[in-house]
Amino acid sequence: MKKAGDTARIRLLNVLDLHWYPKAKGNIDSIRITDSKATTYNDRVARVQAPRTLWDKDYIENSWIGQTGQAHLPLIPKLEASINSFYPGTKLAFTEFTYGGENDISGGIAISDVLGIFAKYSVYFASFWQVQGPSSYVSAAYKIYRNYDGNNSTFGNLFVPSQSNDSVDCSIYSSIVKGDNKIHLIVINKNFTKSITGNFSINSPKQILSGEVWELDSTSSQIHLPVAVNNIINNPFSYTLPPASVCHFVLETSGVLSVKNSNDNLPEKYELAAYPNPFNPSCRIEYTIPDNSTSRIEIYSVEGVLIKTFGQLSHSGVATWFGTNNNNQKVASGVYYAILRSDAGILAQQKLLLLK
After folding, report:
1. What count of other Cβ atoms lies within 10 Å of the Cβ of residue 34?
2. 2-146 in CATH: which number?
3. What is the pLDDT confidence band of residue 344, given thresholds at 50, 70 and 90?
4. 147: exposed, middle or buried (C-beta count within 10 Å: 0-12, 13-18, 19+)?
5. CATH code for the domain defined by 271-354
6. pTM
7. For 232-249, how does the pLDDT look when each residue is reduced to its tens digit (9 = 90+)?
8. What is the mean pLDDT of the chain?
9. d(CA 259, CA 245)
10. Is the pLDDT of residue 267 over 60?
11. Using CB atoms within 10 A of its CB, is residue 152 exposed (0-12), middle (13-18) or buried (19+)?
């Protein structure tokens, strides 16, 4: 398609469209998790873990895909690498997907996790395909992002890095709404039998004043009325996540959060650009900042781990990243984020793709 488009001097492919129906099973000889009869405990566990095939290189699902397809997994990073190798600029879409358990908390957890993964990896378009009915928990999974309070209040429209130290039992996705003073977190407890006490650390120049949590769990497909977060001390706080639950945290801060997306028009005094992108082995990150500001560039993995810091920036210049961390060790290929940050907050961010 790329070669033909170059010859014709026209783009022939805008979006690569996939239909994704997981093959994971609770047991070797059991049915797929998308089957309406996949209701055992092992089926439900397999269902909430299956989204890891989309992104987690350390996960191997119980299916023929996991057994023979590891060279092509995790799915989204491999697809992004292929797109950037063969037809850069092509968007990615999943226009049919389901994980089964549509009227069970396991289906609600899986879809909540998948929606967060799609946001984190900038999937252009996605649409759920109903194979069971009713789909009350799938509906609730969408509402926890899009209408958690019944008044059309939503998750933020700008992704910010976040990290959990337990990808097996817990997922976390975070965002803000530009011009607002709220931080949004979607936090998922995938363990069916144990509560998880999460210790949260928020890296923000603004003080967190209060918080509330909207919960979806196994007791009902209705999102529960909010619970207050009462123990916020200098931004860190703890909260106990019920077994098999999805929680939407809405944290109110002391001021408007100033964040600029790399796709927006930046103020004249702040600029951030990176090329080549995708890159291997190095990437030039150009920046422009006010003379009187204290700024730095931070490189984060897609999981929200701080990889590299470039400090003591001048009025304008170039930071060259050689795909190493702060210990000068090579990092894995994949998606990273360059964030221009000052004492006032995040000023700009740029998505990077390291290919090897």
Report:
1. 22
2. 3.20.20.80
3. low
4. middle
5. 2.60.40.1930
6. 0.77
7. 887 889 999 999 999 999
8. 89
9. 30
10. no
11. exposed
The angle that helices 136-146 and 105-120 make with each other, rounded to 10 degrees, is 40
Residue bearing tokens 């969408």: 142
At the topology level of CATH, where does 158-253 sit? Immunoglobulin-like (2.60.40)
Helix (H, G, I), strand (E, B) or coil at 168: coil
128 pLDDT more than 90: yes
The set of residues, in sequence order, having a beta carbon less than 8 Å from that of 272 and lying 6+ positions away, is: 262, 266, 285, 286, 287, 297, 338, 340, 347, 348, 349, 350
Predicted local distance difference test score (pLDDT) of residue 86: 87
Structure tokens belonging to residue 307: 């990889």
What are the domain boundaries of the chain? Answer: 2-146, 158-253, 271-354
Two domains, one topology: 158-253 and 271-354: yes
Length of the chain: 356
CB 47 within 8 A of CB 110: yes
Nearest to 61 by CA among 30, 36, 83: 30
pLDDT in tens, 164-182: 889 899 999 999 987 889 9
